[in-house]
Prior knowledge:
It is a single chain. Helix 7 (171-174) links the parallel strand 7 and strand 8. The protein has helices at residues 7-17, 32-38, 46-56, 73-76, 90-99, 119-126, 171-174, 255-270, 288-300, and strands at residues 2-3, 26-28, 61-66, 81-85, 103-104, 146-153, 159-165, 179-182, 206-208, 223-227, 244-247, 276-279. It has nine helices and twelve strands. The protein has an eight-stranded mixed sheet with strand order 1-5-2-4-3-6-7-8, covered by helices on one side. Strands 9-12-10-11 form a four-stranded parallel sheet. By secondary structure, it is of the alpha/beta class. The two termini are 29 Å apart.
Amino acid sequence: AADALDAEACARIFEAKGRPRFDPLIVHVRNEAMLDEVAEVPAAAAEAVRRLMAEFWPGPLTFVLPRRPAVPDIVTAGLPTVAVRSPKNPLFRAVLKELGRPLAAPSANRFGSISPTSAAAVMAELAGEIPLVVDAGACSDGVESTIVRVGGAAAGGKARIELLRPGPVTVEMLKRFGKVEPAAAAGGAPDAPGQLASHYAPRTPLRLLGRPEDFEAAPGRRYALLSYRGQEKDGYLGLHEWDALQVLSPGSGKLPEAAVRFFFALRTLDGAGVDEIVAEPIPKRGVGLAIADRLERAAAAH
Length: 302
């Protein structure tokens, strides 16, 4: 994290992560007063944005809003907008209160690799690149925040909510506040964080296996399975004598549990010494949409 209004400090984030300068950062604020320092809420979307903030802040919902002049170009990748959220972690909120300034903070990993969800994972990624890790416990939601852009009322009088990145605040939750639309396909550089096609990737090649019958083991190769619920009836467990196995939600297939375990399980399999990670499909409902999004981006990186 770095003071979001200090361009030199924010540049050190990009250096530590090896992050390209065209990928904007998310700015974290403690409250609406701090939000006003970095962003403007357009009048046409103000009612919907305020209602969403009242429901989901502090929490994992990020808004893309017109930026204030005080925000350095490096934070927004030169875009006219800035991504802003109010975190719920008590320790991070205490830091924001003590500093009294907004903090730019991405996931604490090398650019493009698996997001860390614990202090140990941060150290494995960035040891020697950052001076300090403050351990406030494992991440509670497991996947990165939902990112939205809120527009004026669409047909029928509902606000338009463009889903730029799925996350813990699900489509089903957002639908109570407006008409949710998928983000337009990004061409070239992203216009918000979390939009790159290849991201969240292990070093080990990852393959999404849509159907069990599509798997054929190559001689001499070692395979790991990332299973959704670890049930034989799903058709994946018995396909192969897997060299490593991680189950996201054993037996029950609870998507919130799967989300919390997702990056930990992926990181574990990445360290298992296999030639390829095979991933079962995840239901694209609730927070499962966010897990599926991360899997698709991880597969696209290889």
